[in-house]
Amino acid sequence: MSDLTRLTAAELADKIQKKDVSAVEVAQAHLDRIAAVDKTVNAFLYVDTERALSAARAVDEDVAAGREPASPLAGVPLALKDVFVMEGAPTTCGSKILEGWSPPYDATVTRKLLEAGVVILGKTNMDEFAMGSSTENSAFGPSRNPWDLDRIPGGSGGGSSASLAAFEAPLAIGTDTGGSIRQPGSVTGTVGVKPTYGGVSRYGLVAFSSSLDQGGPCARTVLDAALLHEVIGGHDPLDSTSIDAPVPPVVAAARDGARGDLSGMRIGIVTEFQGDGYQAGVTAAFVQAVETLKGLGAEVVEVSCPHFDYALPAYYLIAPSEASSNLARFDAMRYGLRTGDDSANSAEQVMALTREAGFGAEVKRRIMIGTYALSSGYYDAYYGQAQKVRTLITQDFEKAFESVDVLISPTTPTTAFRIGERADDPMAMYLADLCTIPANLAGTPAMSVPAGLSDEDGLPVGLQVMAPALAEPRMYKVAAAFEAARDAASGGALIHRVPELEA
Amino acid sequence: MTAATVLDYDEVIERFDPVLGLEVHVELNTHTKMFCGCPTTFGAEPNTQVCPTCLGLPGSLPVVNRVAVESAMRIGLALNCEIAPWCRFARKNYFYPDMPKNFQTSQYDEPIAFNGSLDVTLEDGTVVTVAIERAHMEEDTGKSLHVGGATGRIHGADHSLLDYNRAGVPLIEIVTKPIEGMGERAPEVARAYVSTLRDLLRALDVSDVRMDQGSLRCDANVSLMSKGATEFGTRTETKNVNSLRSVERAVRYEMTRQAAILVEGGSILQETRHFQEATGTTSAGRRKETSEDYRYFPEPDLVPIAPPAEWVEQLRATLPEMPSERRKRIQADWQLTDLELRDLVNAGAVDLVAATVDAGASPAEARAWWVSYLSQEANSRGLELAALPITPPQVARVSALVAEGKLTNKLAREVIDGVLAGEGEPDEVVEKRGLAVVSDDSALYAAIDEALAAQPDVADKIRGGKVAAAGAIVGAVMKTTKGQADAKRVRELILERCT
Ligand SMILES: [Zn+2]
After folding, report:
1. Are residues B288 and B143 both part of a single domain?
2. Is A123 known to be catalytic?
3. d(Cα A378, Cα A365) in Å, to the nearest integer?
4. Which domains, and CATH codes, for chain A?
């Protein structure tokens, strides 16, 4: 394995600017790594060698000409979740129904990345339309967890997390509707951040649940995630729900946190997210993390958020309801798969046949749940009630943040489970997002940072840090301080203990 | 299909009370669509005014057109509505090929304007106040063209073509409360309401209000209840009503059709019907097995609209003079009797006459042209007055030529005919047709001398002081000059010659 693929994004960007290495060499090293291991990992659905190298060449030309870098990440490779559109690159969202569709436009996130000189390597695998916690719902086969190839890399953004843990890319983009950035980060020993709702534009993000979807950065270090956050964040007039405020200064916060002083910081443990149902190794790693935070000078207390227990059921009404409407457009009339288009079938029959053939089981399940929940006579009992729970959860957060600066919990109750283990048990699968969903419902920021390895299986455990809306800097500061302390305690970054993949 | 039985109208009125509900869709004349920056020009090449958002491509998002919101509020204010201090868009979910997202972004239980009224004046001067339920914003759908079938409908077609140029064009839907107690005048009220609303929207300059192009569309809900009943009957909704006249005919037909069913003891099916222009009847639309459940929910891709009071007041200040007030003012300014005003209004000529007066004609002249001569012309062509190929400035020019003595009234009508025939501006028609009044006195003297010589006895009478005898000579001169002389001037010259 080339050493270049082991470096952080910050280190790579620095070396490129200092001409220690060219952006083309960096891109090529990652493309080579993908060629060597992705048959095994299946993180990528599409790799665009030509465009990646051409973007890298442009960065090298800037460096040669002595021009200011387009951004602090100029020349750094990145894996883009296949839910963001990029002009001319196939976008599938892990579904057969988008077969053959080549988007005619760039997502705002894609545009910002390209303008920042970030080298987009390709599109990563995901659960179909971001519905799932394992990538097993992808129409193109599951991605594999580099820590144990028989296990899932989390989901829906398992392609992005696997690409980071497999050293195929130092940066990735994910989307988090109920935990799809944080849970994959947790089970692959990487960092994943869900920004405040509206902090990163959704324009060009193929919608699953519009009021919950939030794009965000994925990386192997907190600082890298912060650097990427500042590139993709910010107001976008094309997204009406985008926040009209500057991106919070998360890079400065991450650098500040790395100095290792959390004195004066009040941290709350969510009472509801511990105990039964949490794997022993997860609990142990979490308890250890709490001790580490105290050691950094933080005051740690318990805080109850009583309505968090209702987050999961509320989520499984709101998200499918919006999805049932968002996914209605996949009807074979304008793009994507078309099934049964012969003179015998009407347009309505072609729509039905295409949707039958093009959507997977989990997507169909959620469309049905959502259609039911929005039906007249049921709306108030289901969608309406779920919205009330949403308000109560937001109030729980507000109340908690009156007494603490950030909240913490395990990111997910277990380490990576085996491929196939929960495939036939939707409820078990849904529990993977138990701790992550409240932040989506409240629109508040949250992130997962590697906490350690579980004693019983040696697999990564994630620490979730949650902050009030637009208070990302606090969250990054705590995560960066924790990361530095833990790395120091265990003699290096956790990610370097991932087993070497056979090329 | 056999024609439905209808009941004689008088009998309908004897036995039933009609209840109407009118839903008018107005396409706004904004330059761009409701939720994207695409242009809204009517009649462009198919699928040339589209983008990811109005095509509903995956990942695209809507952004509200501020001008459309302002137009919606101005319409609401002009209809005496309350403006919601906070409202949202909602998704109306149903599958249809010409709807790119398979949901329409509309408003549901939170319309931007509600609880208003519109005063409608009927032909005999009766004023009816129509209560307005709501006015809400939504986006238009695309258009399907069904190829190969006999009917142009989807049933039986070989294939269909879709044009998304119209998809996303801003629409305002204006819904009345039930209009009751109109009795036999219900069809007339329906027509007058749409006509008054159209005038109002035109005055607001928010829409082209062209029923023939679909920028103003009316769906007529009609139901009957037996005399003395308190509960409404089952209603039908008639679509495809594309002119004022059709509104009246459709309502009237539905009343007679429903009555025929009810008197036979049948029941009315709640359904959508289509008005057939050619026969003046309505026919059943596609019947649905289950009632449509649109699964409305608040549109999560848009933020609520909360117009501050100052904004509403600013918009209120931009409201133009309302057509009803304007009529009162015009009546006073032009000194019209009630009857004259009504004729003017009924002819749909208020704006045209006013514009003609603005272009320099006298109110009396302008009125004479539009209300009598041009109205007849429009009737015989089956057009609305405003659709005639002549403009107020052209009429004003003809009027000026008459005032200057360059045209007689008879010649003026020929000039108007020429303009209507597409021969150009009034002056060009005068030139081309050689219609100018013969104002060359020497030419007239020659014609007069000739006529006096031809009728010496008449000439003697005139010379003898019988001035009235001059008429015969005037007639002769007019004949020689093919009517292009000013009879008054000819008379003066004859008398001058004979003294
Ligand atoms: Zn558009």
Report:
1. yes
2. no
3. 17
4. 3-308+391-447+458-488 (3.90.1300.10)
